[in-house]
Amino acid sequence: MLLTSMHRVLQGMTTLTLSASVSLLKPLSCIGSVCVAASIGQYAVFFLGLYLIALGTGGIKPCVSSFGADQFDDTNPKEKKKKCSFFNWFYFSINVGLLVSNSVIVWVQDNVGWGWGFGIPTVFMGLAIGSFFYGTPLYRFQKPGGSPVTRMCQVVVASLRKLRKKVPLDHSHLYEVQDRNSAIQGSRRLEYTDEFKYISCVLTKQQ
């Protein structure tokens, strides 16, 4: 899904670049204060590019960080430390990209042209997809553990059924699987925390 979403973004950015560069796909230049409105076809190409970018971004945003986290084993202290380093560099790179896009790219759009302003990010997006695809043999792929929506619904139903149950102060008395691994195949067990205490009733044992 991640690679497919990247391709959607690249297709959208390429479409925007063409809409700002090809004469038939962009409206005529303004003469003084008189500007010719874009045609329906030009609007269609422009919005097609925007919607492809939105569709692709919706697939990238929730997947790229979790996919990066899957590359590290939390049970290994060295890899756990590298995981923290990864997220530091990950968000640092995002902020550098925002800085460049809001300064350099904006200057290019205003002083050189919108075609170049859309074209430069498109080229870098293509390079990013190429480098991502090139590293495929090195990635770790976690097996899917079922639908998260189903498990969320199970938590809601269980919390409603046990709403009146008293939660013990000692969380060691709450229900937990005995193995180190999760009962869900392909998933890691999450340690108990004091957050979201209001749904701890889900873990109370049946009498």
Your description of this structure?
The chain has 207 residues and is mainly alpha-helical. It is 58% helix and 0% strand. The chain has helices at residues 2-21, 40-69, 77-111, 114-134, 148-161. Helix 1 packs antiparallel against helix 2, helix 1 packs antiparallel against helix 4 (114-134) and helix 3 runs antiparallel to helix 4. It is elongated and about 75 Å long. 8% of the residues are buried.
- Main pleated sheet: none
In what range is the share of β-strand residues? Answer: under 5%
Ends distance: 44 Å
Low-pLDDT stretches are none
> Class by helix and strand content?
mainly alpha
The H/E string reads: HHHHH
Query: What's the number of helices?
Result: 5
Work out the radius of gyration.
25 Å
Keyphrases for this structure?
207 residues, single chain, 5 helices, mainly alpha, elongated
Secondary structure topology:
Blueprint: H1 2-21, H2 40-69, H3 77-111, H4 114-134, H5 148-161
Helix pairs in contact: 1-2, 1-4, 3-4
Describe this structure in a few short sentences.
This protein is an all-alpha fold and 207 residues long. The chain has helices at residues 2-21, 40-69, 77-111, 114-134, 148-161.
